[in-house]
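HUMAN: Now follow token order:
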Amino acid sequence: MVAISRQPSVIFMDEIDSIMSTRTTNENEASRRLKSEFLVQFDGVTSNSDGLVIVIGATNKPQELDDAVLRRLVKRIYIPLPDASVRRQLLKHRLKGKAFSLPDGDLERLVRDTEGYSGSDLQALCEEAAMMPIRELGANILSVKANQVRGLRYGDFQKAMTVIRPSLQKSKWEELEKWNQEFGAN
């Protein structure tokens, strides 16, 4: 395995649930073999006490992971949706610059309005809101200079929120919280 020969190494598997979900009786043979081989290789990587290989898996569906995978991923870290303080920081970071700044009162309203939004949801929301002043220009967009485009307003975010909704339903969010209480390491 490349990771062992090139250690120290980190193996990162995003959306690990897509290949390591709970095994079922009606699963095809190729899928079963893939999972079995992964588990064998995982054991080889993690059983070497001198090894400097770390395996990290990311998922938003931990409850769908196979029990054998969970046994091997002994440290399970839950990263919750951003709270108000984190949303404020993320929004301030995304809205850096004079044309994108909002008055503090509007920023605080936006922080309250975006409860349940993930970091990527907030990014998409900011991008959608930033397009509002540009869309208003219509055909004039070709003749207007960048400094003539109006700045962002709270209303742009209100409109953007009709298009960009939180990607995680509250029931799913609560399900992840519950799973973390039962199986998480933090």
